Every structure is written in structure tokens, then in C-alpha cells.
Amino acid sequence: MRLIQISDCHLRADPDARSRLGFPLRQLEAVMAHASSLRPDILLVTGDVSQDESPASYRLAGELFDALGCPWFWFAGNHDHPDFMQELRPFHQELDLGDWRLLCLDSRISGQAGGELGREQLAALSLSLEEDTRPTLLAMHHHPVPIDSDWMDQLGLADRDALWDTLSHHSQVRAILCGHIHQAFATRRPSGQGSVAVYGVPSTSDQFAPLSHDFAVDEAARPGFRVVDLDGECLETWVERVSL
């Protein structure tokens, strides 16, 4: 099973719109072309598909995702309009990956850049993990661990301690995929008797400079995506960068 994660496309209704450093739609087209060559089984889009929250921006994205030729799933980030997204493609809270499953968590807070899962969603997560002990991936927009970037860590998951307390009772969670940070990232966080991997992914648009005190764009980094291969109970993952 091969899953490809992309994130933070930041499209606008105008297909020729610019970002700080480039053209988001053209960059997403290049990312999708490279992703297609790796023959994914599933595409997961972890939020901030749009920059202007327009229906047209989601239609542009949907056309590219459809062309990939595999099932695709998405959820909202802090820049997104969830209702417009779900009119085009409904959200899914759980994906069956055979030997594995993937649970999608909603970390978006309307009108805010930072995120939160909330008590009700964490309680539902705990119940879901009690009912199915298969190896599990979690996906959310906001990062659930510090990334040593002062400005971005102020905009991460506000109730991350509550999340990790929940996960400490469920050993089948192997990894968390997140967006939002516009950079490749990987770490492990102790949890219960073991540990959980946390993976960030480059944006398909502009990249943020890692380890920065204040907001900064990484002008040298290229767009990219994450590949996750699942084979039995084994997980292998890496980041692919795309030349423009």
C-alpha cells in the first residue's frame, strides 16, 4: 500500500495567481505529475488547499487530484472553507488501508491560525482506538509537537498534551502525518511503553525556513510531498522534492 501525502497548496480562484515565490497551481501540477510516476494507491491532502477559500480554487485542486487515478481524500486546514470542500468531496474520518487504518482528525479552529482537537474529538479517538487495534496512522493539519521554529510553534496544536495523554493508552498508533509547517520534518515522541513518529511534509507551494525565530520563507527549498509505504506491519516513508 502506497500513500502519498501533499499539503498546503494555497490555490486561488485565479489559476495564474502568484505566491511569494512562485505560482501555486503550476507547482501543484508539477507535484502531481511526479507523484503519478510513483503509482500511489491513495492520495491524502492534509489541509490548506486554498488561500482565498473560493469554490473555484477547490475545483482546480479537485481536477488535478482526480487525474492522479487513485482514491483521494482531504480535510481542512486553517486557510480552508470546509463547506466548499465537502460540496466537492466529503471528508472521511477513517480510511481502511488493509492491515492498517488511518484516522483523520480535525484540528481547524474557525478564524484562527492555530489548531485544537478538543475534548469530544479526543474522547472519540480513544474509543475508536479501543475498538480496532490494527496498526494506525493519524493525520491532522496542525503539528502536534514543537518543531523548534518559534513563530510556527505558537500556531501548532494547542491541546497537544491532551493528545499525547490519549495516545499513551493505545500502542497501535505508529505515526502522525501533519501539514501546516511547509517543510520536511521527522521526529519520534515517547508514548506509553513505546514511541510515535511525527512527520511533516513540504508544501506544494512556498516553503518555510526551518528553525526560524520569525516568519521566513526558504527560497532554496523546492516543493515536495511525502511517500508512505505500508507492507504488513512495516512503515517506510520519505520526502520527494520536485524541480520546477
Describe the secondary structure blueprint for this structure:
Layout lengths: L1 E5 L17 H14 L4 E4 L9 H13 L4 E3 L7 H7 L5 E4 L2 E5 L14 H13 L4 E5 L9 H4 L6 H8 L5 E6 L6 E7 L2 E7 L23 E8 L2 E8 L3
Parallel strand pairs: 1-2, 2-3, 5-6, 6-7, 7-9
Antiparallel strand pairs: 1-10, 4-5, 8-9, 10-11
Helix pairs in contact: 1-2, 4-6
Keywords: Hydrolase, Iron, Metal-binding
Family: Belongs to the cyclic nucleotide phosphodiesterase class-III family.
Protein name: Metallophosphoesterase
Could you characterize what this model shows?
The protein has 244 residues and is of the alpha/beta class. The chain has a single domain, classed as Metallo-dependent phosphatases (Purple Acid Phosphatase, chain A, domain 2, 4-Layer Sandwich). Helices cover 24% and strands 25% of the residues. It has six helices and eleven strands. Strands 4-5-6-7-9-8 form a six-stranded mixed sheet, with helices on one face. A five-stranded mixed sheet has the order 3-2-1-10-11, with no helix packed on it. Helix 1 packs parallel to helix 2 (55-67) and helix 4 runs parallel beside helix 6. The longest helix is centred in the first third of the chain and has 14 residues, at 24-37. The two termini are 28 Å apart. The mean pLDDT is 97.
